[in-house]
Design goal:
The protein has 307 residues and is of the alpha/beta class. It has 7 helices and 18 strands. Strands 4-3-6-1-2-5 form a 6-stranded antiparallel β-sheet, with helices on one face. Bound molecules: FE2/S2 (inorganic) cluster. Keywords: 2Fe-2S, Flavoprotein, Iron, Iron-sulfur, Metal-binding, Methyltransferase, Oxidoreductase, Transferase.
């Protein structure tokens, strides 16, 4: 684990702060990368890196109204001088080095797309950057955007001013060499996925969910068999595999509990999963070789996981 000290905490917009961190070991990072950060309250959360000086990391955090403790802890308890534990930077996005790019972000979902836009522009990829937000006082990095060499390619879509982003129109008749990079909550990303799917080009969509508020966790009860210990645990209608394991004293890895971060993914040994996460790709879900235990369930009466 890397240790890092918070060296600045700055309010960027309503309910959004930026932290700059000085780690004891700095690694360069790929566009769109994030850090796993262990907070003072013991929770682990993922935050996208935003461009800053080498030797430091910067993240921006929205205070979520229904926070389970991650964003609240950063806003209320993390101050200049606080020491945090970090993973090395990790990246889920893979950037195409040809064609053109449409970048679509909603709210704080702009953060991973900032470094991606810089990298694509440096690779001479034509950009169409859409930044959707509710109101100007709730939008981070407007000044930063205005300084970019690709600033002319950025359009702001401001709900309070009646210029809401029309996703279907933006993506209709997608050019064959266009790739789409998108980040935001599920209500923003699902219509993007639907529009890309309707044109049979999901393979050109690169997404990162930062929350999955519509996630339905309940379902029929089932038995989860544990391949490593030989034990079995009943998962009740209102439980997840994760919470059922915790009830029985097990301590599996997890982080977001929203099906978006991938921390809780475990190999599936037997049985079929009803996948509910937004982390695994369609192909990975169809292969039935792993599942996210914070949200996915057994399709039938039982399932065996490698735990
Ligand atoms: S804990 Fe994040 S996907 Fe399960």
């Amino acid at each position: 684990m890397i240790k890092a000290k918070v060296v600045s905490k700055e309010i960027l917009a309503k309910d959004i702060v930026q932290l700059r961190l000085t780690p004891n070991h700095w690694e360069d990072w790929q566009p769109g990368a994030h850090l796993d950060i262990t907070l003072p309250n013991g929770m682990e959360r993922q935050y996208s890196l935003v461009p800053c000086d080498n030797g430091q990391y910067a993240i921006a955090v929205l205070k979520e109204s229904d926070s389970r403790g991650g964003s609240l802890c950063i806003h209320d308890d993390v101050q200049v001088g606080t020491e945090l534990q970090l993973s090395a930077p990790k990246s889920k996005f893979s950037l195409q080095q040809d064609g053109r790019a449409i970048l679509m972000s909603a709210g704080i979902g702009i953060t991973p797309l900032m470094s991606i836009a810089d990298a694509l522009h440096a690779a001479n990829i034509p950009l169409d950057f859409r930044y959707a937000f509710r109101a100007p006082d709730q939008a981070a990095y407007l000044n930063w955007l205005a300084t970019r060499p690709w600033a002319d390619a950025c359009q702001q879509h401001i709900s309070s001013e009646g210029t809401r982003l029309d996703i279907a129109k933006t993506l209709q008749d997608l050019q064959p060499d266009a790739h789409v990079y998108a980040c935001g909550p599920s209500a923003f990303l699902e219509p993007i996925e639907a529009a890309m799917s309707a044109q049979n080009c999901l393979d050109r969509l690169h997404v990162e969910y930062f929350s999955n508020k519509e996630l339905e966790l309940s379902g029929s009860d089932f038995i989860v068999h544990l391949a490593q210990s030989g034990g079995e645990v009943k998962v009740g209608e209102q439980e997840t595999i994760l919470t059922a394991l915790q009830r029985e004293g097990y301590d599996p890895m997890y982080s977001c509990e929203d099906g978006v971060c991938g921390s809780c993914i475990l190999p599936l040994v037997e049985g079929e999963a009803e996948h509910r996460d937004k982390f695994l790709t369609d192909e990975e879900q169809a292969s039935q070789s792993e599942l996210a235990i914070c949200c996915s369930r057994a399709k039938n009466n039982s399932i065996t996981i490698d735990f």
